[in-house]
Amino acid sequence: MKIMKFLQLFPIFLMFSMLSCASAKNTKDSFELGSTTAPKNTINGFGMGSATAYRNGYSYEMDEAYKTLNEVGVSFIREEITVKEISDLSDQRKMIEAAKENNLTIVGLLTYGFDFYSDDNDFFERWDYAIDKIVKELGYGIDYWEIGNEMNCIKFWRKVRPGTLSVEINIYAEMLNRAYKIIKKYNPNDTVILGGLIASADFENGYDPTSFLRNARKYWDKPPFDAVGLHTYWGSAFPETDIQNFIEEKIVTGNMADYIESFNKAIQEIFRKEYPIWITEVGYKNEELSSLNQSYDNYDENGLQAIGLIRTYTILLSTQPVEKVFWYTYSPDNEDVYVINKTSLNVLKNLSSAITNTKPLGRFPVIDALGREIKELYDYRFLRDDGQTISIFWSNDSTEPFVQATINHLSSNSVNLFDIEKGIESKGTILQDAEIKFRILNAPAFLLGKMNDSTRIVVDNETGIRPLIYTKEGNIYSYDPENDIIQALTDNGDLSWENSYYNPLLSTDSQFVAVETRSSFIILDLQGNVLESWEKTSKPDIMADTLVGWDFQNNLYFTRTIGDCIITDNKIIGPDHVELIRFNPQTEDSETITDLARLDDASHAYSIGHKISFDGKYLAMINGACSVGLSDKLYYMNIESGKVIQDTDYLRVDPYNDDQFPVQEDDNYIVLDKNLSPDHNYIAYIRMEKINNEASDSEDGYFSVPEETSTSELIITSTKNSQDKIVIDDADSVIGWSSDQSKLAYIEKDSLGELYPHATLKILDLTESKIITVDNGQGIDSTGW
C-alpha cells in the first residue's frame, strides 16, 4: 500500500494551490462551452432627481450640485417644469447651460396644472399654450420629456385638477396626447415618457399602474409616448425582498424585479408592443432606513441607504426593459426625508464607474458545495468591452453577518476583489480560482476578471457531504459518509437485465434519487419510497430512453424516443427522433426542451443521451444504430444552438470548460477513468501497465485488456504539477470526489472479464488519512458522487 506517500504529498498540493498561477484558459469559437451571450444594450442609465435646479434656486448651488452629480457618474438629471409658471423661462435656460457644462442630460418633467380654469376646454387651451411655449423655448437643450408625475395617485392628480374626487384618466390621456403632438412637431426625435406611475399597495381614489394604462388606452388611436415612467418605492425593504403591490387591481407579492416583469408583460398585452421602462423615482425615506436598521443592525442608516442604492441600481439596470434609473433625491424637498447622503454618493460613483457602458448579463445563482442555489445570495454580472466581467454580489440574509465563499471555474487563473467604498480603481485583492476564500456580506462588493457561464460563487458547505449512491446486485444503495450508514433504497432487484435497477442519479438538493429499470424511470426519496414512476417509450433492447442527470435548479432530464427500429428485408429504419425532456419533481411539470441532434446520417442511426451539464445547457450523447449496437464515443451538443462536437481528452475530464489537464505517464501505461476535482486543482485516474504491449485501444474505439495484465492503480496528482503522484494499489475505477473534496470514492474488483465481478467500494478519506471499505458484492457501480 502506497498511501503514506499520498498523505505526505497532499499538504504540499494544497500549498501549491494557494501560491501558484495557472495558465490562462482559451475559448474555442466553434463550440463555446461556458460562453456568455450578452444583451445588445449597454448601460448608460444613471439618473438623479428631482428638481435639483429649482431647489437650489437656479444659482451657484445648482452649479455645484450639477458638478457633484457629474463627478459621481450621473448622466441624466430629472428637472421639474411646472406649466403654470412659464412667464419667464430664463432660470430654465441657466439650468440647460449648467447641465451642458457638466455633461448632464435633462429630462424635462412637464407637470401639474392650473389654479383656475373655467371648464375642460379652457384647461386644455392653457395646457397646449404652456407645453408649446416650454418646448419652443427650451427644446434646444432638452430632448427628453416626462409628462406628469404620479398621475395615477389622487394626491398628485389634485395638483393638476384641484378639488377633484378621483383620478380622471380621460383628462390625463388627452394631456399626454396633446403634449406628444406638440413635442414631436418641434423635434420628431425627442423622447416622450408617460409620466412616472407610482407602484403601491394603496390606491384609494386612484389606480395601480397597469389599470391606469389599460383605461387610458381606450382614449388613444395610437399610444402617444415612447417610454413608460414608473416609481418603485419599496418601503422598509431592499429591492430583492418580496412585498405586496397591486397589478391589474389584484394584490401580488414579489420583489422589485418580479414587479417590473409583471408590469412589462401587462404593457405588452395592452399595447401589443414592448416599451422602454424608465424608473424616474426610487429611494428611501429616513424612517424606512430606521426600520431597516432594526433588522440589519450591523449598519447605520447612512450605510443602509448606500446598500439599498447599490442593490437597486444593480437589479433594475439588469432587468429588461429598464433603461434609466433615477434616485430620489439629491436636493431636499419640503419634507426633507429622501436626501442622498455622502456615503451613498461615494458608492454611486464607484458603481457607475464600474458598470457604465457594460452589458448586463443578469443574475447568476450562488450555490453551496452541493450545487444547490442559495436564494438569499445574489450575483449580478456585467460584461466589459475588454472581455472581463464584473460581478456585484451580496447577501440579503439579515440573520447572518457574512458567509465564506470561493469563486470557481474562471476563464482565467484569478479575479480581483474590490470593496464597494473603494471601487475598481483601488488595488483590490487577488483571488485564485476556487482557492482563496472571501466573505459575502449584506453590503455588496465587486469581482473583476475573466468569467463564463459556468463560473460560480460557491459558499462553504455547512449541510454535510452528499450521500454516495451506488448499485449492488441489481439494487440501489445510499451511503452516508458522515454517519457511516448504508441504506438500501430498493430490495426487489437482481443482477438479471429484466429485474435490475441501474443508473442511479442523486438530485442536486440531495433529496431524490432517479433510477432506471428495463422499462421505466423511477424517482425515490432517500428512504426508498417511490415518489414518481413512468414508462419508457422505447423498446428495452435499443436503450434509447435514458436518464441524463439533474441541473443546478433540481430539474431532472431524460430522453424519450419517438418511433422504433423497423427491420424489413430491404431496409432498416431507426426511430424518428429522440426528445430531451425536463421534469420538475416539486411541481411535477415536464417540458420538451429539444430533439437530440443526429450523429450519423444512416437511416437506422439514432442518438442516446448520456449526461446533462450542471447548467442544463449541454448534453453528452452517444450514437446508436438498430441491429448494430452502441458506440462508446461521446459527443457534446449545445442545446440552444444544436451544435455538436466529438469528445476530446480534455472534454472527458471537464466537459464544461475549454481547459486541458494533461496527464503525464510513460508509454507503457494505459490511462482510464480521469476524474477532475470540483475545484479543478486535482485529477484522479486509473493507471494500468501494458503487458507485452497487449493492452490497447482497438480500431472500433473499444478498450481490450488481456487476462494477464498487471494490477491497476489509482493515481492522484495536481493539475498544476503532474510530476508528483499519489499511488493507491489495487484500484480499478474512479467514482468521484465528495463535494468538499475531502474524500474520493473508487472501486476495487476481485477479477476482470466477468459480467458482474465481485468488487469492493472504497473511499479514500483525505482528512483522516485512511481508506474506508464501504461495501462489497457483485455488480457494484456508481454514476458519480
Briefly characterize the structure:
20% of the residues lie in helices and 34% in strands. Keywords: Glycosidase, Hydrolase, Signal.
Describe the structure.
The chain has 785 residues and is of the alpha+beta class. Among the domains are: 108 residues, Immunoglobulin-like (Sandwich); 311 residues, Glycosidases (TIM Barrel). Helix content is 20%, strand content 34%. It is built from 13 helices and 48 strands. Strands 1-2-3-4-5-6-9-10 form an eight-stranded parallel β-barrel, surrounded by four helices. Strand 13 and strand 14 form a beta hairpin. The N terminus is likely disordered.
Q: List low-pLDDT spans.
A: 1-39, 694-709
Structural category is alpha+beta
CATH architecture call of the domain at 46-356: Alpha-Beta Barrel
The tally of beta strands, per DSSP, is 48
In the sheet with the most strands, the strands line up as: 1-2-3-4-5-6-9-10
Largest beta-sheet characterization: 8 strands, parallel, barrel
CATH secondary-structure class of the domain at 46-356: Alpha Beta
Looking at this structure, what is the CATH superfamily of the domain at 46-356? Glycosidases
CATH fold call of the domain at 46-356: TIM Barrel
What is the helix content? 10-25%
Report the mean per-residue pLDDT as an integer.
88
Rg over C-alpha atoms, rounded to the nearest angstrom: 32 Å
Shape: elongated
Distance between the termini: 24 Å
Q: How large is the count of helical segments?
A: 13
What is the strand content?
Answer: 25-35%
Protein name: Cellulase
Organism: Flexilinea flocculi
Signal peptide: 1-24
Keywords: Glycosidase, Hydrolase, Signal
